[in-house]
């Protein structure tokens, strides 16, 4: 497979004028945003293009921010996720305020992506290893019936400042994803790592892989996703808060034997800002990576 893979960045959550938005807040020593590290790592791992998914209201602002920084280093494209994008007229509800989630964002990029591609969040730091192993999979292993995700051990993706939501994965002995369950209240305690919601308390082993929305897909996933999209719209009529998530699509592909999803062991480092108190940890972690030579003094 000769084409270089593409990196699809989910950035539709950015606020207009970027006021106080963690996705464009500067955390690096030179005020670098977290997504700048993802783009830097993608470039040196062999990706050939970056596609940003944004809302229409911030499209021009996003171009003004990113093109001067990345435009000379890698091909850039911008795709709008809007309420009516790929939504037939009969399903559009004038009362709805927000788009339909991450799998809807994926479908919005269908016309912009022809090659194998990775999908990440704009505001998560995934580490160089994740992009390197994704690039290898997307150039050598990916097939229409074989996608991947980068697995992160639950012990490495918690916040010391409160509970987190994570897609807890069940894997096969061969290293393939069997399914995932979204756990919305996970925290580390003196007794171990637990999900606790109401009377439900479930222990999660420290090495158990979780999804941090770091995926690798063959472009066949667009057609596979569309087969689930229209039934979702039908089932969600009148529900103004319904969301169509990538894990829902992945679980369906696995359960219906439409595709396998390989869990890659590239998730060695991760951090993000779930709570305001997490900011200091992110800043110190990035500073240390620069000092250790993982990143140059200035990214660009």
UniProtKB/TrEMBL annotation:
Lineage, top ranks: Bacteria, Pseudomonadati, Bacteroidota, Cytophagia, Cytophagales
Classification via SUPFAM superfamilies: Nucleotide-diphospho-sugar transferases
Organism whose genome encodes this protein: Cyclobacterium lianum
Name recorded for this polypeptide: MobA-like NTP transferase domain-containing protein
Keyword set, alphabetical order: Transferase
GO molecular function, one term: transferase activity
InterPro entries: Nucleotide-diphossugar_trans
């Amino acid at each position: 497979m000769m084409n270089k893979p593409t990196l699809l960045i989910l950035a539709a959550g950015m606020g207009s004028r970027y006021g106080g938005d963690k996705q464009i807040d500067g955390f690096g020593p030179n005020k670098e945003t977290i997504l700048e590290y993802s783009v830097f790592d993608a470039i040196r791992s062999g990706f050939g293009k970056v596609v940003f998914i944004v809302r229409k209201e911030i499209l021009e602002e996003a171009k003004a921010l990113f093109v001067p920084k990345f435009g000379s280093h890698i091909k850039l494209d911008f795709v709008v996720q809007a309420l009516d994008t790929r939504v037939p007229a009969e399903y559009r509800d004038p009362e709805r305020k927000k788009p339909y989630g991450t799998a809807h964002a994926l479908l919005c990029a269908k016309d912009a992506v022809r090659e194998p591609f990775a999908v990440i969040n704009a505001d998560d730091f995934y580490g160089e290893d994740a992009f390197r192993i994704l690039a290898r999979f997307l150039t050598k292993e990916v097939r229409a019936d074989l996608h991947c995700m980068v697995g992160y051990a639950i012990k490495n993706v918690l916040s010391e400042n409160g509970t987190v939501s994570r897609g807890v994965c069940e894997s096969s002995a061969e290293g393939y994803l069997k399914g995932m369950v979204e756990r919305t209240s996970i925290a580390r305690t003196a007794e171990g790592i637990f999900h606790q919601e109401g009377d439900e308390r479930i222990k999660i082993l420290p090495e158990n892989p979780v999804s941090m929305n770091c995926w690798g897909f063959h472009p066949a996933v667009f057609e596979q996703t569309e087969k689930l999209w229209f039934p979702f719209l039908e089932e969600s009529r009148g529900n103004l808060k319904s969301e169509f998530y990538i894990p829902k699509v992945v679980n369906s592909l696995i359960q219906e034997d439409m595709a396998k999803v390989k869990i890659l062991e590239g998730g060695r480092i991760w951090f993000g800002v779930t709570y305001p108190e997490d900011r200091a940890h992110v800043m110190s972690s990035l500073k240390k990576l620069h000092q250790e030579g993982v990143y140059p003094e200035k990214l660009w």
